[in-house]
Amino acid sequence: MIAAPELHTEFNFSQETDPHFSSDTDFEDPDGRNQKPSKGKTIKKGKKVPGEKGKGGGLNRMNGHHQENGMENMMLFEVVKMGKSAMQSVVDDWIESYKHDRDMALLDLINFFIQCSGCKGVVSAEMFRHMQNSEIIRKMTEEFDEDSGDYPLTIAGPQWKKFKSSFCEFIGVLVRQCQYSIIYDEYMMDTVISLLTGLSDSQVRAFRHTSTLAAMKLMTALVNVALNLSINMDNTQRQYETERNKMIGKRANDKLELLLQKRKELQENQDEIENMMNAIFKGVFVHRYRDAIAEIRAICIEEIGVWMKMYSDAFLNDSYLKYVGWTMHDKQGEVRLKCLTALQGLYYNRELNAKLELFTSRFKDRIVSMTLDKEYDVAVQAIKLLTLVLHSSDEVLTSEDCENVYHLVYSAHRPVAVAAGEFLYKKLFSHRDPEEEGMPKRRGRQSPNANLVKTLVFFFLESELHEHAAYLVDSMWDCASELLKDWECMISLLLEEPLPGEEALTDRQETALIEIMLCTIRQASECHPPVGRGTGKRVLTAKEKKSQLDDRTRITELFAVSLPQLLSKYSVDAEKVTNLLQLPQYFDLEIYTTGRLEKHLDSLLRQIREIVAKHTDTDVLEACSKTCHALCNEEFTIFNRVDIARSQMLDELVDKFNQLLEDFLQEGEEPDEDDAYQVLSTLKRITAFHNAHDLSRWDLFNSNYKLLKTGIENGDMPEQIVIHALQCTHYVILWNLAKISEGSSTKDDMVKLRKQMRAFCQVCQHYLTNVNTTVKEQAFTILCDVLMIFSHQIVAGGREIMEPLVYNPDSSLQSDLLNFILDHVFIDQDDDSNSTDGQQDDEAGKIEALHKRRNLLAAYCKLIVYNVVEINTGADIFKQYMRYYNDYGDIIKETMSKTRQIDKIQCAKTLILSLQQLFNEMLSELGSNFDRSSSAFCGIKELARRFSLTFGLDQVKTRDAIAMLHKDGIEFAFKEPSPHGEGHTPVNLAFLDILSEFSSKLLRQDKKTVHVYLEKFMTFQMALRREDCWLPLISYRNSLQVGGDDDTMSVISGISSRGSVRSKKTKPATAKRKVAEAEESSSSDGMWMNREQTLQSPVMMQTPHLTSTVMREPKRLRPEESYMGVYPMQPEQQQQQQQQQHHHPQTPIDYNTQVTWMLAQRQQEEARQQQERAAMNYAKLRTNLQHAIRRGTGLMEDDEEPIVEDVMMSSEGRIEDLNEGMDFDTMDIDLPPSKNRRERTELKPDYFDPASIMEDSVLGVSMF
């Protein structure tokens, strides 16, 4: 066996080695196969040489460029990037050039890889001959364009998207075309592998990424060559064995000798290929599969999956599977996804299952846990992988493993749910008895699907994690639609008696089956997933539309006949009847006429009428109402038949109600419980039908109004009667309004409606004070709806005729509504005993109660947003923002946003009013001598900070509102003088500390205006006081100073609410501008000056993190600007400078001149101090900027990564290789030396650092 040459990482080419081409190459050169072309020799254009293709000229090589078919000189990189030429012809041309001058051809190939990395440098022939690998890579690194981190594999655009596929295709075609000769010449492949190995170790990301992709694709191509060699070896061995087993007389010794020689050559070639693959695997893969860049790790895992699938005999063993198993713990979802897709290709082939047993047992738990991955794409592929595992063997996954996947059919993410549904179907529904397959297809209860439908019902009942059958049906719709559409089987299971020996369905199972049946009918009719599973209704294809029409026709034909029977059988069961009554909504009503099914329609209407008479449950009655509404469609001929039946039923109900109500109200004594029940049940039926049907002709307002007035006067009306009477009256008003909106009414109707609406609002306002919480909630909800409907919005859209109906609530009604919110919404969870029906310990009850309170608050906030009630009433809502942030924070914040859009100034006044109310409440509890560090005061201050953040960054838009907010705050602070006399602080002075949270939102010029307004309320003594009790005034005045810190903020807020630093380049301000600002800030307080003078000089400041890597020429300043603003000069330096300026002999000066000179010196000193203060401010700004960068989360998230970076995610503290101690074999990479290359000193140790890129769960465990 001939050993392959060992690869090393230096370019050191011998000039004495001749290329050898075997006879089986695709490009034979019989005339010159043993002749070495001279260096730099070119082939003249027009003169063909042996091996050239007849269709065009050869390659004209000039300094690494080529000319093809008369095209302009282009490098190999440009040809591949354009993608216009067939890749095989490009490779063939390169092979031709290699045969004539292999060094120049390899130089082109090396430059191709360099340029594909985005490097502008070019490897010259001189560098190629004399420089080592590391020196060339170092030289190329210097040629990188540092202005951008993009390179061809990462640049966006259609051209560069195609480039990656062309790049990979070029490498594959190159190996394929060279597989019979050139790759065995111990030169070309050695050079390429050595180059790619060196580049893959570079700290430059572009080199590392591109070379890793190239090396992995090269490895894939070599694996394909090795597989072909293996097949040829097996065929040759089989021929040899066949020939040798022949009798001696018939045996052809020459043929045996040829076969033996051929097998030997194939074995040598296979050894060569194996050594190349080992070199790539150990030199590139084992280091790059744990690279710091996720894309590089993903490339490695994707390709190793290809190798194991393509050449399973060599690669599908634990030595290679362990890398995929370890990388399943990667922190990046992209890499985990590649692991799963690689494994799917292996598990799909059942013949490979035996080799995957050990891997499956070791990493099965990890795969199961990945079904809950935070990346949905990873979770989907994990479920699909488990489905393949289940398909290969039923014994691998335990029942616990399967249950972890089962519950995902209820996932809100549809792809996850669909994948889980397929897994569930494979596990529970794909197994059929062999006896059933040969028997003729039966229908109904005896069909093969009967048991599967029962299994589905059992699973639905046993899955206690969820109760929504619609999600289960949607999850299995794609894989089990045939089963789910077997409605005939479902009907027979519900109507027919069980067969002998068959167990009948229980009541609970029948309920579940009816619910599942309803969900399947809805899915087939609407063709879109349930709520929460889709982004909206998508456009159906022609095939889907046809399937939808066919399904609706089939549904109508089946259930038009069977639905009356089902309703008759389950008429007493409210839950079953409610679901069954929804079926007609999905019927094609025309089939009742075309199919001559009128008698079944009469039977259905009769059943509905009986159900209405039997039930008082609201859900059942509303289902009946909706069904009648669906059937009463004027477009179909059945309308008259249904309308007559509906009118007869409602006539009976209204007559019965009026009669019962008259008897109920005329009794002088306390109402009888039976009479009350009769009134309530009839009222429930009428209310349910009034929701969907216009019952105006029966004039129900007067009877309901009389009932409600009696309840107010007597106070003993049952709560359920009041609730339904309020609801029914509400429907009456809405239907009358709808009639007027359509223009089919008279002026008297409008006057009548106006009276009815106002009288009804007064009744509801009375019921807001009812003792029963449920009644108050109903009255409040209806009042909010009525006020919204009859607000000034009713005349919008050209409906000025309806202006008489506009109703503006008076102050008493607004006050009652606000008090209801404060008493019933802003309460602790444990206090809401009535809303939870005594089930405080029931978590579901608490959630339901919170949902109800959120709806009540949203209804009131809607009145504020649409200006139905005064905006300032929102102060009582806004002040609860912090306390009830978890429950109602989103609603209150949205209300603030909407009110600001309506009226910015009024919204600001409301916000400051809410803070004033909280401040007054705190004073009433703690007294005027409270501690400003108390939790109550800090809470108000934090609320003010939150309010400040809601104004956003655009100070111009909110200018007037912020100014008005400060005006109201200042007036409130000085509103009440101190009761102890003039020398003491005003009662509300501490409010200025809260008001200072809004100072940062003032513009520079507005700060001056607010400061002037503040001084109007201050006395001369106040400005001189420095005691602690006056600190709020001092702090607020300082926040309004223009020359100090710009936009000063509180200690709590820091600089967290500043704008993004990334978009603003921090530059030292010139001295001239700083001097001007210092002059403007001459009124700044002395304590701020003292604090600023203690800061470091800017010279000692650390360079900010946000700096450019490009060296810029320093800005040239004018002489008068100088650098004094940043680097103040020492007095000695100034004196020297003055001496230099006045080097001429000085003449005696008079007194006036001396005074002028002294004043000038004093002005210069003051200017110098002001410049120094400005420099201190700049230093302070830089310090704050650095802290903002260190503190801020996400500021640098979108920045590009630097080109040069650490190769590994952790370069120190590597743990020992997890391979150690394992008893499985790995491929040997002991490569013998080559005469063309120096020996490689050593291969990189196979260290593995999972702590850097893997999750903690993988650490500290044995792999197998």
From TrEMBL:
Keyword terms: Cell cycle, Cell division, Chromosome, Chromosome partition, Coiled coil, Nucleus
Compartments it resides in: Nucleus; Chromosome; Chromosome, Centromere
Main location: nucleus
Amino acid composition bias (Basic residues), ranges on this chain: 36-48, 1061-1073
Residue ranges, annotated region (Disordered): 1-67, 1056-1086
Residues annotated as domain SCD: 285-370
Pfam families per record: HEAT_SCC3-SA, SCD, STAG
SUPFAM superfamilies in the record: ARM repeat (SSF48371)
InterPro entries associated with the record: ARM-type_fold, Cohesin_Scc3/SA, HEAT_SCC3-SA, SCD, STAG
Residue stretches in coiled coil: 226-279
Family stated for the protein in its record: Belongs to the SCC3 family.
Subunit structure: Part of the cohesin complex which is composed of a heterodimer between a SMC1 protein (SMC1A or SMC1B) and SMC3, which are attached via their hinge domain, and RAD21 which link them at their heads, and one STAG protein.
Physiological role: Component of cohesin complex, a complex required for the cohesion of sister chromatids after DNA replication. The cohesin complex apparently forms a large proteinaceous ring within which sister chromatids can be trapped. At anaphase, the complex is cleaved and dissociates from chromatin, allowing sister chromatids to segregate.
Name of the protein in question: Cohesin subunit SA
